[in-house]
Amino acid sequence: MAEIFPHLDYKPKLPQRMDHGIGIVGAGGIVNYAHLPAYKKAGFKVVGITDQNREKAERTAKEHGIEKVCASVEELLRVPEVEIVDIAVYPAQQVSIVEQCTAAGKHLLCQKPFADEYAKAVRSVELAERAKVKIAVNQQMRWDAGIRCARILIDEGWLGTPVYGGIQVHCKTDWSLWPWIYEGKRLEIMFHSIHYIDSLRFLFGNPAYVFTSGSRAPGETTKAETKTLTTWEYESGLQVLIDVCHSTWQDDPYAIFRFEGTEGVIKGTIGLMYNYPTGRPDTLEFMSKRNPGYWFSARLDSMWIPDAFVGPMASLMRSIESGSEPETSGRDNLRTLQVVFAEYRSMAEKRAVRPEEIVA
User: How far apart, in whole angstroms, are the C-alpha atoms of residue 215 and residue 217?
Assistant: First the structure.
């Protein structure tokens, strides 16, 4: 039986000021069931929203108590209280909104994927840097309880030197929630495993090489990949595995992570993936040569949705206050996108690819 380990301080660190005004671009599902519930729970100040579909924006504003519904991004940017723009639109549309927001001197939290092309992401970063505004990307899995606790344990030396990192997710995904994704040319890596890519970079740094095999289950009509097997190699000898399948038909889905090192092992479950989007808390256990024979378990009482969504916004606000870079800054996310596009190149060319091969 696992022993209970004392509570780990894994929850997002909040800014000193809670009155940074947020304007939302987009009123889709993720805004309604993740962004806005998280911001309300944290005590953040959302002052306005806009969407191409005015009715959706008005419905979202009414449900979440947002005072101003704007007819356009331009109108939202004219709201004096808006200091940060939270963009939640399709990746291909994001760079044009970044252009408008940086010209208006607004800080930015961009949706992931940051862009559908690497060059567009680079342009967004350069626009923000020239305008001297902060730009972050909503890679919120870094603040999911299991991943954040794993990072704390790694930093405190419980793992020793990392030798293996693995995330394996086999589930049944209802793509009718995102028909535009299912009908596209890129799917699993770009819109799902990008979470694991960014989180594994957060834990272990940037890989030297990546190799990916992607495919589909029989009967699937999409032209894109819905299941992938990916390995990363590091100069240190560390190996990473990302194993994802969205077409599991059985009644035993699983979403697990396991990180091994010279001194210990960390393992757990990604609760959100067992009954998305409701989810359940993550689990996390670890053992170490410091206490041989014992598995410790961490008490985790927060959820990826909505709780982890506090993290990127809080980090952005703290960076505005301190002048530092957000944890998931746009420039850092370029490295995540290099891995994403390197994996697609690996699939196409059937070879291991260095992420540095991906350039604007």
Answer: 7
